[in-house]
Design a protein that fits this description.
The chain contains eight helices and 39 strands. Strands 13, 14, 16, 17, 19, 20, 22, 23, 25, 26, 28, 30, 33 and 36 form a 14-stranded parallel β-sheet that branches. Strands 5-4-1-6-10-7-11 form a seven-stranded mixed β-sheet, with helices on both faces. Strand 8 and strand 9 form a beta hairpin. Helix 6 crosses helix 7. The mean pLDDT is 94.
Amino acid sequence: MTVTAAIVLAAGEGTRMRSSKPKVLHTFAGKTFLERVMSSVEALGPATLTVVVRHQGERVAEAARGYDPDVTIVEQDDIPGTGRAVQCAMRQLTAGGDLDGDVLITASDMPLLDTGTLRALLDYHAASGDDATVLTTVLDDPTGYGRIIRAPDGDVLKIVEQKDANSSELAVREVNTSVYVFDAHALAAAIADLDADNAQGEFYLTDALKAAKASGKVGAFAAPDPLSVEGVNDRVQLAALARAHNLRVCEYWMHEGVTILDPSTTWIEDDVTIGRDATILPGCFLQGGTAVGEEAVVGPYTTLIDATVDAGAHVERSRVQESHIGRDANIGPWTYLRPGNELGEGSKAGAFVEMKKAHIGDGTKVPHLSYVGDADLGERTNIGGGTITANYDGVHKNHTTIGSDVHIGAGNLFVAPVEVGDHVTSGAGSVIRHDVPDDAMVYSENTQHIVQHWKPAWER
């Protein structure tokens, strides 16, 4: 079924996070709470998507517009409460006339709220003919949640916030998830006379369900997966939910034919893809849009951020960001690939190597203790240890080109811009400032001087 309007509540401060950042802008598996909830709601195709902001409203609004430029931003006034947030949203949504159809309302602190759960809620609401439907779940420990109070026949009577609940109500384990569907006309009527007569002194949206029940029918739909509607109020809950979600992600990939030796120390974000028979060793973080090919080996202790690792490659104890590692390449240990690298088939970036915007040809090896930045290296070239491409002159980043089948001696320094041809050999310790033609040998003078019987100044 279609949604006339969707209202995402993002006005709260989230004081229990104890953060200078609004709670909804904290991240979960690589995306903010707000982005994840907005994405799930947008997939339903609502005619209007509205985000209500208050605490650090400009910051939250800017983030929301970054996720969806067409989002409608509503600023909640100084009157607190979710009920007041919906009043402000409905005032703006009905400024041009009455709304017809259904309105979806959701909190923004449920990072695992998914489109499938929301669609099931909408389908249930449509089939039941209710004026309002609340999404619920059953928790072993319902502390902190509003309780769903039902009549003996199962109908929803009311929702009681924990601070307003008596002992029998506190024993109820079915809780409110802060996700609702209302008929637009029923919602407008239900929020018209909200008040702050409660322990919190706030306008509760849950009170709107009482009003809706007085004039119509209120139903409840239990979420199939309690994890999908679990809220985050503090960093302890955030860590626990992230751990539970990550375990599911790891189990999914293991069922798809990926070997993960230690899921408890392996973190894989939602947009990552991994090929069959790949192996992920302990201590790895796979983030963003990272793609790992078949039979590749990642780890141990490796971070991949928006990286592509082709089949058969091995990346060990390294950090790789926005780079492409070719088939059967060997990276690490202790390698840092900054954004923009392209490493060819069978290439190598060894221990304590750093690269940035480097193109490394097939079979070319940069074994250890080197920096290669803004450079093109041909095929089957070997770079001696301690080699540096000096790419920055204080104003511009300059380019180094080294051809194929080149042997670079240890401790070379290439002062860019400079171009070295194919089949070149360089002597150890060379400083190469000028272009070198094909099939040449290049070295620079470095006279050795010895001072006998020398002592340091302090000893003299």
